[in-house]
From TrEMBL:
The keyword ATP-binding does not apply. Its cofactor is [2Fe-2S] cluster. It comes from the Bacteria. It comes from Fluviicola chungangensis. This is 2Fe-2S iron-sulfur cluster binding domain-containing protein. PANTHER family: FERREDOXIN-2, MITOCHONDRIAL, FERREDOXIN/ADRENODOXIN.
Length: 104
């Protein structure tokens, strides 16, 4: 599937994402060496993988852990998501995500 990531300089990266490797968006960004830290390793505990959903891709409901983390994060918008909580699957083909600014 295709995943578009807009980096913090506004550059669009259209990435090929495998659906059979049990990966999430945070891991995909790291695999392509985009500047996503993913400090907690995908546990919804750091928000360094925060991004904004810019396509109308239907995503699964956010977990309580994700909502709690976003409650404490910086630069949160209504369309904020944690990249590590978005599994790569056929359903998200064509998704467009913009990386949130890095919190100091
Ligand atoms: Fe830490 Fe996603 S990698 S919240």
């Amino acid at each position: 599937i295709k995943v578009t990531i807009i980096d913090r300089e506004g550059v669009e990266h259209v990435l090929d994402a495998p659906t059979d490797m049990n990966m999430n968006i945070m891991e995909l960004c790291k695999a392509y060496e985009l500047p996503v830290k993913g400090e907690c390793g995908g546990m919804a505990m750091c928000a360094t993988c925060q991004c904004y959903l810019e396509s109308d891709t239907p995503l699964a409901e956010q977990s309580d852990a994700e909502l709690d983390m976003l409650d404490q994060a910086f630069y949160v918008k209504p369309n904020s998501r944690l990249g590590c909580q978005i599994p790569i699957s056929e359903e998200i083909d064509g998704i467009v995500l913009r990386l949130a600014p890095e919190a100091e």
